[in-house]
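Weekly modeling sync, notes
Attendees: AB, CL, MP (scribe)

Item 1: holo prediction request
CL wants a bound-state model with pantoate before deciding which constructs to order. AB pointed out that an apo prediction alone won't tell us much about the pocket. Agreed to run with the ligand included and paste results into these notes for async review.

Input as submitted:
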Amino acid sequence: MSLDTQSYALPVARTVADLRAAIAGWRKAGQKVGLVPTMGALHAGHLSLVDLAKSKVDRAVVSIFVNPTQFAPHEDLDAYPRTEAADAVKLAGKADLIFAPAAAEMYPHGFSTTVSVSGVSQPLEGKFRPTHFAGVATVVSKLLLQAMPDIACFGEKDWQQLQVIRRMVADLDIPVEIIGGPILREADGLAMSSRNVYLSETERKAAGQLNVILRETAAKVAGGAIIPDATREGADRVRALGFDHVDYLDVRDAASLADFPTGRVTAPARILVAAKIGRTRLIDNMPV
Ligand code: PAF
């Protein structure tokens, strides 16, 4: 195969060999390279990561790969939006290359390796999606080794994922700078997500209040409230909005995601929530 320069306004590499050849050309010209890993269905949040990358390096590669290993069998792998042509239109004039491998390119027959990060992967999302972060860490380590970028940008919306990736890159000595990009929000504060398209009109309205409850609960904890008391009350308010289930709403150490045993914040902290409304599971977080 070779680089596809015909289908879209920017080139697409579908194989690791083509990705590496394109990047080698830039490196020869002394250019620095950034990678923005995505699963496609791009929204303004993703595009802000591409802008962030381009503000720091010469070339930005956006990978689009709906990674099967980070979905559990009951999750939305088949339903996950796949909008490559529309994504390419959004990336035109912003990114320099799309890397969109097929599943068989990433996980060829006989693939047997899993990258598993303990500690930071285990609470919160790790409890409710026990195989998720191993899938993320495996695919992200592959993408980093395939592209060998100078920087890689990830959204703070997936805060725990960002901490897992930071830990993995430090532990495995992968020579890349990991950069977190701030959460982009809709007018009512709903964190932008590819999964927001699943929401009905009523669900969308309730979802817009999730960030308000998060902010108010964070303010209570910052003002001295005991964490389990404030978060229990916050979770009750989320359920009262019409959410069917709150997987967690908690205040944790911002880097390790460990809890605060005294019930009070003693280090930089983050409030994080995951809650289900209808068939859509939403996550959000912010600093405390
Ligand atoms: O955040 C995502 O979209 C995915 O988890 C990632 C980092 C692209 C890995 O598949």
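Recorded for review: The radius of gyration is 19 Å.
Action items: CL to compare against the apo run; MP to circulate these notes.
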